[in-house]
Amino acid sequence: MITKCDSCNHEFELTQLTTESFELLPNNVERHYFECPNCNKQYTTHYLNDDLKEMQEEIRRLQNKHPLKIKQKNKLAKLKRKIIFLHNQLKMEVEHK
Ligand SMILES: [Zn+2]
To answer: Can you give the pTM of this predicted structure?
Structure first.
């Protein structure tokens, strides 16, 4: 994925090589971001709190299980929907305070 920096117009590829770091905000919320390699402008990718981390862990555990029972498949689908919702909610909370 090619990303263009809003600030300096530098184009760069978002790969796993791009260092993603995070800073700790109040209430144990992590703000994850990456930096433009040219001007170091920070771009927030997502926020995480303890609940979300726990959920991610559970999703990972379920995804590694094969084959999944119907019940587990349903649980996984539900968790994935919930985590998207909570990600957005947390973003709203942090950015609109
Ligand atoms: Zn830049």
So the answer is: 0.78
Structure confidence at residue 7 (pLDDT): 96
Sheet holding 20-25, edge to edge: 20-25, 29-35, 42-48
Cα(7) to ligand 1 centroid in Å equals 5
> Would you give the DSSP letter of residue 15?
-
Q: Which residues of the chain have pLDDT under 50?
A: none
Return d(Cα 41, Cα 88) in angstroms, integer.
22
Ion ligand 1: residues, CB < 5 A: 5, 7-8, 10, 36, 38-39, 41
Contact (Cβ atoms closer than 8 angstroms) between residue 61 and residue 53: no
Cα Rg of the chain, angstroms? 17
